[in-house]
Design a protein that fits this description.
The protein is α/β, with parallel strands linked by helices and 542 residues long. The protein has 16 helices and 21 strands. Strands 1, 2, 3, 4, 5, 18, 19, 20 and 21 form a 9-stranded mixed β-sheet that branches. The chain has a 6-stranded parallel β-sheet with strand order 9-10-11-12-13-17.
Length: 542
């Protein structure tokens, strides 16, 4: 044997005995990145296994018990879980995206893909198109790619946005011509890459859409095997009727149904969950593809106007204020709004999250009843005054849900996790108001509280519900699992330490226990330090 050949074979043999990685230049192909020594939970739901994961470019190229080739960069994952990057199927992370594309609170809890355009509201169509294509989903995705973002971003098309563009803010049926135009806008959005269609039927103008209108707008989803995502018309006293309507819309359109942030709101409605699950099972048995998502908190976030009846918001904010001033109906409005507050336990269960008026800034983060008392004012009157000063834009959190029901929703076969939250940061433009902590803590909270502490789920079950299951619901086929050939979106975390730190008093605290987040093969986070922004816009093919 020649001397060079002898030395080469001797080196390889020695390395095999010691277990050390092979040296560069010994005839073995090296990788761009190797995640070494971790425990893989691949997203499929099957048991965990020990493996190294190799990445070249933006793809996972090898998953094996021992990868001998070295990586140009290696991350020590011993004692850690290597999981697919999490997919947030219901996010409002685009709210600060173009001001702060780092997406700090998202990336720092292992989320690699978010789906925006939720609750019936999307950035396109905007109604401002002048023929140059700037009003399109395609243009929005191109703008996202140009950032680039810290994580991947896809969007649904909001049917409330579509209605606003074509019909406006009025409570009236769409004409035949208007309906045809709305259908065309939905078809265009889907052709350009929208991942589904969404409604927010407690918000205007989406609340003014009839069942028949929504069936027509959802029909284009069927051919693309995409889903109708709905914030239902009601989530409390008429919850069951709202579930029935949602199923009927999906059945009529021939598409799948994703019920957004499923909840039983208000103590008097907590007992309805079995009936909801029964309806889901019946629909699935009849061929309707129904699933749902939920954030892991007992409080929701919305606008303060949502405590006022939908009919008061017909025609927009100016007409809303005019009705508040009308002595003939002002008393009725007050009674109905008070009733909505009482449903969730009173004004003490309403926390103000965001205002624009300087004189109301002290209200941010405070419970409305206590804040009103400190000012010597009636809570309802203060709510109305704040809405006037802020042109109707006041954010709120409502504390209204059951812990037992939350766990049952998370455990359900067709339940999955979502944040319904924004992208937060401890400083900069993504620090606004005192928002719901779900934007900074949802995914870590599932892993820490509901897996490790409460044992409501196994880690394998939770990872599937955080990754592969939501990815499949929006037609993303090459993400959401750890498997050779798929795009390299990966979350590495310590199952014994992972936890959310954000709370309702201080939501601007990052999750803990995440070692690394990999986005399209790029290291977005490692050991607390942020790396490059390697996220992409995701179109309808994933």
């Amino acid at each position: 044997m020649k001397r060079r050949s002898f030395l080469t074979h001797s080196a390889i043999g020695a390395l095999a005995l010691t277990g050390a990685p092979a040296l560069i230049g010994l005839g073995r192909r090296d990788h761009g990145l190797v995640l070494r020594g971790g425990t893989v939970i691949d997203g499929s739901g099957r048991p965990r296994f020990a493996a190294d994961v190799a990445v070249d470019g933006d793809r996972i190229v090898r998953v094996a018990p021992r990868i001998r080739e070295r990586g140009t960069r290696e991350i020590d994952c011993r004692g850690l879980i290597v999981a697919p990057g999490f997919v947030d199927i219901h996010s409002h992370g685009d709210g600060t995206l173009f001001d702060d594309p780092m997406m700090e609170s998202i990336v720092r809890q292992g989320v690699t893909t978010i789906v925006v355009g939720a609750d019936g509201s999307s950035r396109a169509p905007s109604g401002n198109d002048e023929g140059d294509g700037t009003d399109s989903v395609r243009a929005v995705l191109e703008r996202i790619n140009a950032l680039p973002p810290g994580a991947n971003v896809g969007t649904c098309v909001g049917l409330g946005t579509v209605r606003g563009v074509v019909v406006g803010q009025d409570d009236r049926p769409a004409s035949a011509a208007e309906l045809a135009r709305m259908v065309a806008l939905v078809e265009q959005a889907l052709a350009e890459g929208a991942l589904g269609a969404s409604t927010g039927l407690e918000y205007t103008p989406g609340a003014f859409a009839s069942r028949e209108e929504l069936i027509a707008l959802c029909r284009p989803l069927a051919a693309r095997r995409l889903n109708y995502h709905t914030h239902m018309r009601n989530e409390d006293d008429q919850l069951l009727e709202a579930v029935d309507e949602s199923i009927a819309i999906a059945r009529g359109a021939g598409c799948g149904l994703q019920i957004s942030h499923l909840k039983t709101q208000g103590p008097r409605n907590w007992g309805k969950l079995d009936a909801v699950f029964a309806r889901v099972a019946e629909a699935r048995a009849a061929g309707v593809d129904v699933a749902f998502d939920r954030y892991p908190y007992l409080a929701y976030q919305t606008g303060l106007t949502n405590l006022f009846p939908v009919w008061t918001r017909d025609g927009g904010i100016d007409r809303f204020f005019a009705r508040l001033d009308d002595p003939a109906i002002a008393g009725r409005i007050r009674t109905e709004a008070q009733g909505r507050a009482e449903l969730i336990g009173g004004w003490q269960n309403v926390q103000i999250t965001s205002v624009s008026a300087r004189e109301d800034k002290l209200a941010e983060g405070q419970r409305l009843a206590a804040y009103a008392q400190s000012l010597g004012q009636d809570p309802y009157e203060l709510a109305v005054a704040m809405l006037r000063r802020n042109n109707g834009s006041v954010g709120m959190i409502g504390f209204a849900m059951s812990e037992e029901n939350l766990e049952r929703i998370l455990q359900h076969e067709w339940g999955m996790m979502a944040s319904d939250g924004g992208s937060l940061a401890v400083s900069g433009p993504a620090r606004r108001g005192v928002p719901h902590p779900r934007g900074a803590g949802s995914f870590a909270r599932v892993l820490g509280r509901y897996v490790r502490e409460r044992r409501a789920l196994t880690l394998e079950q939770a990872v599937r519900k955080l990754s592969a299951l939501p990815a499949s619901r929006v037609g993303i086929r090459d993400r959401g699992r750890i498997a050779e050939g798929l795009l390299a979106d990966v979350a590495v975390f310590d199952a014994d330490r992972v936890i959310d730190r954000a709370d309702f008093a201080n939501p601007f605290q990052y999750a803990e226990g995440f070692k690394a987040t990999i986005v399209n093969g790029g290291v977005a986070l490692v050991d607390g330090e942020r790396g490059r922004r390697t996220g992409r816009a995701i179109g309808g093919t994933g």
